[in-house]
Amino acid sequence: MPATDFTLTSIDGTPLPLKDFAGRPILLVNVASACGFTPQYAGLQELHEKWGSKGLVVLGVPSNDFGAQEPGGEGEIKRFCETRFGVSFPMTAKQAVIGGNAHPLYRWIVEQLGEGAAPKWNFHKYLIGRDGELLDAWPSRVAPTSKEIVGAVEAALAGR
């Protein structure tokens, strides 16, 4: 089962089937507005602007699972992201990303990569390949514009 078999809900409340992104690499990131890593939104937006037209999908998944650092509702989250960081990449409705209540996509990630692959904090990143399979994962401290992530994104876009 590929990641593209899952559907999330967009931050605007409409269905967001990942099959709409089939054939495109997806950088999936659980995000929060009141976290020390929140400035990473700028790097995520930079990736979106640089490689979105070449096929990369940056997908932000707001979550309140870590330190209650995403307490607001979807409208508040959307306004914060757009006004503070100019976010124009797709965002989902707030989701649980760990534990028994985690969205099925995040439970699938743990099934694929093991319990240690679950997010440990906000801004944990997963790269999903064009075929919907997991390619790599990075913890919060690895910036979106790091050599590791940029190299992996470039390889995924090139089909490697």
TrEMBL record:
Active site: C35
MF GO annotations: peroxidase activity
Stored Pfam families: GSHPx
Source superkingdom: Bacteria
Annotated keywords: Oxidoreductase, Peroxidase
Thioredoxin domain location: 1-158
Family annotation (CDD domains): GSH_Peroxidase
Gene3D superfamilies: Glutaredoxin
Biological processes, Gene Ontology terms: cellular response to oxidative stress
InterPro entries: Glutathione_peroxidase, GPX_AS, Thioredoxin-like_sf, Thioredoxin_domain
Record family assignment: Belongs to the glutathione peroxidase family.
Full protein name: Glutathione peroxidase
Upper lineage: Bacteria, Pseudomonadati, Pseudomonadota, Alphaproteobacteria, Hyphomicrobiales
